[in-house]
Fold this sequence. Notes:
342 residues; Quinone Oxidoreductase, Chain A, domain 1; Rossmann fold; 26% helix; binds nicotinamide-adenine-dinucleotide; binds zinc ion
Amino acid sequence: xxxxxxxxxxxxxxxxxxxxxxxxxxxxxxxxxxxxxxxxxxxxxxxxxxxxxxxxxxxxxxxxxxxxxxxxxxxxxxxxxxxxxxxxxxxxxxxxxxxxxxxxxxxxxxxxxxxxxxxxxxxxxxxxxxxxxxxxxxxxxxxxxxxxxxxxxxxxxxxxxxxxxxxxxxxxxxxxxxxxxxxxxxxxxxxxxxxxxxxxxxxxxxxxxxxxxxxxxxxxxxxxxxxxxxxxxxxxxxxxxxxxxxxxxxxxxxxxxxxxxxxxxxxxxxxxxxxxxxxxxxxxxxxxxxxxxxxxxxxxxxxxxxxxxxxxxxxxxxxxxxxxxxxxxxxxxxxxxxxxxx
Length: 342
Ligand SMILES: NC(=O)c1ccc[n+]([C@@H]2O[C@H](COP(=O)([O-])OP(=O)(O)OC[C@H]3O[C@@H](n4cnc5c(N)ncnc54)[C@H](O)[C@@H]3O)[C@@H](O)[C@H]2O)c1
Ligand SMILES: [Zn+2]
Ligand SMILES: [Zn+2]
């Protein structure tokens, strides 16, 4: 069957790989219909993702159809359309035993640390499949991206009416924006990219936007919007260590700062005294939990989340290798590119 492998940075190749074995106990054989492409895939392609190993079949944002189930599987049946929770956890470590399956100590993300779904069929643990009767495969492939923002917003326990500043209007910041809106909080988005801010206002219903210029104007604008108080919650989705340090300064008294963006660089805090003076809480956010997938599917099914604006680019599987480099260019306005296998 067909597969696409990232052999090494900058180098995809088409492969013919063996069919998966019959599903064992607790497993399901699935057909891949849609694959979402995200920053992790771009980072893997560019050789800039520290957790990425090669050669690798990418693909972790998947809309799949169940073909055959193994012994003991009761949550899905052949013919079911599913989203895939691509976080493979050991179920035994300290984190897993405490229910923190999103940050298992032996965590493997499909398509990043082990082979993913850029192929026709694959075996998956059935417990990682989340069914919808009504969503399209494209919508199901979007659930994982949304789950990252869902978890980040949950980490801060965002309350209705609070001011939430999202820094970084890429797909991860936008996914957080969806759940800030769902929770009835007031959203403010800060980015250096004017086109992305315009998209946030015009298509994503952001309450307010601020252009980051790297000067005092950002804080002045934030204070003007928040009645001088700054943001109750700041979610940094830039992955930029300077932005992550500066984010502390945007928190209100008693505020919470969530790092959903990832940096390998040192973060140093010139504003460190604010942590004490304003009694701030700093939170990490990694992946998402199983229950987020079910919740997001419900929110798309009932129309609370509109997936319409999200998918900006589409490609057929056979054209993916040629199309992929074009999605790296910001001027294409890509938010989410989706690869179709049928
Ligand atoms: N927590 C998780 O489990 C998880 C999962 C997936 C991705 N991520 C991380 O989330 C981050 C965002 O991912 P993405 O795909 O949305 O990336 P992206 O590059 O598409 O978006 C980042 C945005 O931040 C903006 N930005 C950069 N520096 C800025 C600054 N100094 N001030 C204001 N805005 C700035 C950019 O203009 C861009 O719009 C990355 O670090 C990624 O690795 C985290
Ligand atoms: Zn992703
Ligand atoms: Zn574990």
